[in-house]
Amino acid sequence: MEVTTYFRFLLALIFVLGLIGLLAWAARRYGVLRGTVRPAPGARRLEVVEIAPIDSKRRLLLLRRDTMEHLILMSPTNELVIETGIEPPVNAGQNPPNLLEEAQQ
How many helices (H) and strands (E) in the chain? Predict the structure, then answer.
Protein backbone atom coordinates (compact mmCIF):
# COMPACT_ATOMS: atom_id res chain seq x y z
CA MET A 1 0.00 0.00 0.00
CA GLU A 2 1.14 3.47 -0.77
CA VAL A 3 1.28 6.48 1.51
CA THR A 4 -1.56 8.14 -0.40
CA THR A 5 -3.88 5.26 0.51
CA TYR A 6 -3.17 5.76 4.21
CA PHE A 7 -3.61 9.50 3.80
CA ARG A 8 -7.01 9.04 2.12
CA PHE A 9 -8.05 6.65 4.90
CA LEU A 10 -7.03 9.18 7.56
CA LEU A 11 -8.91 12.00 5.82
CA ALA A 12 -12.03 9.83 5.49
CA LEU A 13 -11.84 8.91 9.18
CA ILE A 14 -11.51 12.56 10.23
CA PHE A 15 -14.42 13.50 7.97
CA VAL A 16 -16.71 10.77 9.37
CA LEU A 17 -15.81 11.61 12.99
CA GLY A 18 -16.48 15.29 12.24
CA LEU A 19 -19.92 14.44 10.83
CA ILE A 20 -20.75 12.33 13.89
CA GLY A 21 -19.68 15.18 16.17
CA LEU A 22 -21.73 17.69 14.18
CA LEU A 23 -24.84 15.50 14.33
CA ALA A 24 -24.40 14.94 18.08
CA TRP A 25 -24.05 18.69 18.66
CA ALA A 26 -27.16 19.42 16.58
CA ALA A 27 -29.14 16.73 18.41
CA ARG A 28 -28.21 18.19 21.80
CA ARG A 29 -28.76 21.78 20.69
CA TYR A 30 -32.21 21.23 19.26
CA GLY A 31 -33.44 18.58 21.72
CA VAL A 32 -33.77 15.73 19.24
CA LEU A 33 -32.40 13.09 21.61
CA ARG A 34 -34.73 13.92 24.48
CA GLY A 35 -37.82 14.42 22.40
CA THR A 36 -38.49 17.80 24.02
CA VAL A 37 -38.33 21.32 22.73
CA ARG A 38 -36.13 23.72 24.65
CA PRO A 39 -37.76 26.97 25.71
CA ALA A 40 -36.41 30.28 24.51
CA PRO A 41 -33.59 31.78 26.61
CA GLY A 42 -35.05 33.64 29.57
CA ALA A 43 -38.28 31.62 29.46
CA ARG A 44 -37.02 28.64 31.45
CA ARG A 45 -38.99 27.72 34.53
CA LEU A 46 -36.58 25.21 36.08
CA GLU A 47 -33.14 26.03 37.50
CA VAL A 48 -30.55 24.27 39.67
CA VAL A 49 -29.78 26.75 42.45
CA GLU A 50 -27.16 24.78 44.37
CA ILE A 51 -25.60 21.31 44.59
CA ALA A 52 -24.04 20.14 47.87
CA PRO A 53 -22.23 16.79 48.00
CA ILE A 54 -22.91 14.80 51.17
CA ASP A 55 -20.50 11.94 50.51
CA SER A 56 -19.03 10.19 47.47
CA LYS A 57 -22.41 8.78 46.39
CA ARG A 58 -25.07 11.21 47.61
CA ARG A 59 -25.74 14.90 47.04
CA LEU A 60 -28.38 17.49 47.83
CA LEU A 61 -29.92 19.53 45.04
CA LEU A 62 -31.78 22.77 45.54
CA LEU A 63 -34.04 23.31 42.52
CA ARG A 64 -36.10 26.40 41.70
CA ARG A 65 -39.35 26.05 39.76
CA ASP A 66 -40.95 29.40 39.02
CA THR A 67 -40.84 31.05 42.47
CA MET A 68 -40.66 27.93 44.66
CA GLU A 69 -37.59 25.94 45.67
CA HIS A 70 -37.38 22.19 46.30
CA LEU A 71 -34.69 20.22 48.18
CA ILE A 72 -33.92 16.77 46.73
CA LEU A 73 -31.51 14.06 47.91
CA MET A 74 -29.93 12.21 44.96
CA SER A 75 -28.16 8.86 45.21
CA PRO A 76 -27.25 6.18 42.66
CA THR A 77 -30.23 4.03 43.64
CA ASN A 78 -33.02 6.55 44.23
CA GLU A 79 -34.12 10.15 44.69
CA LEU A 80 -35.88 11.53 47.75
CA VAL A 81 -37.75 14.82 48.08
CA ILE A 82 -36.63 16.29 51.41
CA GLU A 83 -38.62 19.51 51.36
CA THR A 84 -40.86 21.21 48.84
CA GLY A 85 -42.41 24.64 48.55
CA ILE A 86 -39.45 26.54 50.02
CA GLU A 87 -39.74 30.29 49.52
CA PRO A 88 -36.48 31.72 48.12
CA PRO A 89 -34.78 34.33 50.31
CA VAL A 90 -35.68 37.94 49.65
CA ASN A 91 -32.14 38.93 48.67
CA ALA A 92 -31.46 35.82 46.54
CA GLY A 93 -28.63 36.44 44.12
CA GLN A 94 -27.38 39.54 45.93
CA ASN A 95 -24.39 39.91 48.20
CA PRO A 96 -25.22 39.71 51.91
CA PRO A 97 -25.08 43.04 53.73
CA ASN A 98 -21.86 43.87 55.55
CA LEU A 99 -23.09 44.14 59.15
CA LEU A 100 -19.77 45.48 60.46
CA GLU A 101 -19.89 48.49 58.12
CA GLU A 102 -23.52 49.18 59.03
CA ALA A 103 -22.75 49.04 62.76
CA GLN A 104 -19.89 51.54 62.43
CA GLN A 105 -22.07 54.13 60.69
Answer: 2, 4
